[in-house]
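[step 3/7] fold_predict: job queued, chain A
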Amino acid sequence: MNSLTRTTSSSLVATRFSVWGSMALLTASVLLRTASAQTNPAATGDHCVSPAVIPQMVREGNSVRVSPSTHLVSQQAGAHENEKAIAFTQAPETLRTLEDAHRWFEKAARKGYAPAQVNLAVLSFAGWGTPPNAGTALYWLREAARQQYPLAYFDLGILFLRGCGVRQDAHEAFSWFERGANAGDTAAQLNLGYLYDQGLGVAQDRAQAALWYRKAAEIGAAQAQYNLADLYAHGEGVPRDERLAFAWYQKAALQGHTAARLMLGSMLAGGRGTEKDLPSAYAWLSAAALQGDNRAHASLQALERQLTPEQLAQSRMRAQSLARSPNPSIPSELAFLH
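[step 4/7] structure written:
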């Protein structure tokens, strides 16, 4: 689709990690040996964990996923401690609050509470309230994964895809994303589709990519809707169908996906997959520009010469309204461009 490309959702522990179970205390030496993980703080850079994660411990951040509060089970051992830790992460951030959060997550994790194990992994990986230790983070994620906790599958996939604290391994990433996708994790489904799309860690198979994009798209993931639309627009893995492409671009665009808005505007301007509608095309392209994407600048100038003053005024008002709509929900915003 010209200069726009498909993307994957790629997050890690701090915005996509969690688990359950009970376990005995382990010595630091065991943790450091786990899965040959790197323990050098340099291995846990900003490309792995976003500072924006801490205020969003209850949802998902920009780079690594944390356990959402909806997974809490009040009767389960460790749930109370996990809630206390989350409260500290939502307080004004200081060294003390992060240390307190780490302490309570650790208590919950050692009781076998999966969400806390994921959250503890995030803090350990990022070095929040504790010295950075990728080996410890990987250990807790694997504990969560052993309990078949979907967010742990996703986060492990991200670690191996990005080479964060472990040797980069697309095949291993594929294996973890596949488990997460089969467990119903939307972000894992999106990433699995992307790996099939690009042939990373698996033979390229765009029919499979479309299948997994569709699963995430139907749940409402804007990035998956965009990627699926792109496959239909090019006839890759699915029959070429501009009407279906337009429909999926539109779903993503309505969620605030900027690239989808550009594609929607382009198709409306050219009458591809839909009736030609220049005022609407201008509104969608202008909304993308108001969101900071100026790739349609020349197209907007051309459209301005074709619209009446009344049409321009109405389209600009609509663009302002569209630009105020929320950004795509997680996992769409947790995406790699390629």
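[step 5/7] annotate
Strands lie at 7-9, 335-337.
The longest helix spans residues 95-110.
exit 0
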